[in-house]
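[09:14] KT: can someone run the structure on this one? pasting the chain below
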Amino acid sequence: MVPLLVLVALIISGMSVQLSAFYSIIVTLIVGFMKNRRNMTVGNILGACENSVKSIAPVAAACILAGIIMGSMSLTGFGLKISSLIENDIRRKFIVCTIAFHGSQPSVWYGTSDIGGIYGIGGIGLLRYY
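[09:31] RB: done, structure tokens below
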């Protein structure tokens, strides 16, 4: 629990995440030596490091590939194109909902307190913006 508290406290204090993780690992080793000295042998520590490297490799590979994909999408402008296509598709599918919600507020469109917007009259003004 102490290493986790140290990690959170260092990150909140403004230290970089990498340096905070390094200090948290050092605190973990210190707590391990203080708690159970017999199990903290060099062989056990190296074995724990080896298991950590083996278990983190698939996660690291996925993060590397995601970074490559995101970098290439942002450099080519493909990401912006896809996001605009998704936005336009959602806008077209939910235009009825948008009209219904905005149609219930006629004062927004006409500057009046008329209740005609409740029936969708106020929402007609929204169509000219799409």
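[09:33] KT: thanks! The longest helix spans residues 42-76.
[09:34] RB: yep, looked fine to me
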